[in-house]
């Protein structure tokens, strides 16, 4: 079921359906035109990254010489806020992410990134980035990619460790899960060098699979997390942020 609002997500669940919304991974698909975002929003886009690893005309990526938010990027942020499109800081460089956080009028998120304290990878984020993101009303969702976990086997225990480290820094109400799993390709998907650096091709890097979530849930409960905390981590926290952004676009 293609959803437009958070209430649609709840309705899909009640009807036993999968709720789907789209995101844009980088501003290249806008072709330098702000008007494209409103078109995508009408087609079901509810979240977007400004940059996907490599610099573009909106800002700097985490696998590039981060140039910061550009004039187009600043205009794009204002337009995303106006339309109620949730801004995702994943894949951005440090400078660009912090400039977005400083300027945004709505909550922003890291939809799939882990603490650098867990694994020193360019796609992971610092304590400063996590806290600044949460200060906007947003959240940090940990991800199950082996490279970002520092665990090629992508075990449930390591993902739970990522959750614990993130909770320590931003609080349990501000943590989610974004597995970034691909059913079609697993961990062997094609990597375009335009977006991914050469080291992405080297070595094993499995994904945490959706069918590991029951085990992850049990681990969190055994660690003493309450039912409401676990429900929040599994999705309710993200729903809270999405509902706030989608239902309260910034007036023109």
Q: Report the β-strand fraction as a percent range.
A: 5-15%
Number of domains: 1
Query: First CA to last CA: what distance?
Result: 30 Å
Radius of gyration: 17 Å
Sheet with the most strands: spatial strand order: 1-2-3-4-5-6
Number of strands: 6
Structural class: alpha/beta
Return the CATH architecture: Alpha-Beta Barrel
CATH homologous superfamily label: Metal-dependent hydrolases
Catalogue the unreliable spans. none
**Global shape:** globular
What fold name stands as the CATH topology? TIM Barrel
Count of helix runs = 9
Mean of residue pLDDT values: 92
Secondary-structure element order, N to C: HEHEHEHEHEHHEHH
The largest pleated sheet is described as: 6 strands, parallel
Helix content percent band? 25-40%
> Can you tell me the CATH class?
Alpha Beta
Summarize the structure.
The chain contains 9 helices and 6 strands, in the order αβαβαβαβαβααβαα.
Task: Describe this protein's structure.
By secondary structure, this protein is α/β, with parallel strands linked by helices. It has a single domain, classed as Alpha-Beta Barrel (TIM Barrel), CATH 3.20.20.140. Helices cover 39% and strands 9% of the residues. It contains 9 helices and 6 strands. The chain has helices at 6-14, 35-42, 71-83, 94-103, 127-135, 146-149, 156-170, 213-222, 227-247, and strands spanning 22-25, 45-49, 86-88, 108-110, 139-142, 175-177. A 6-stranded parallel beta sheet has the order 1-2-3-4-5-6, with helices on both faces. Helix 7 (156-170) crosses helix 8. The longest helix has 21 residues, at 227-247. The two termini are 30 Å apart.
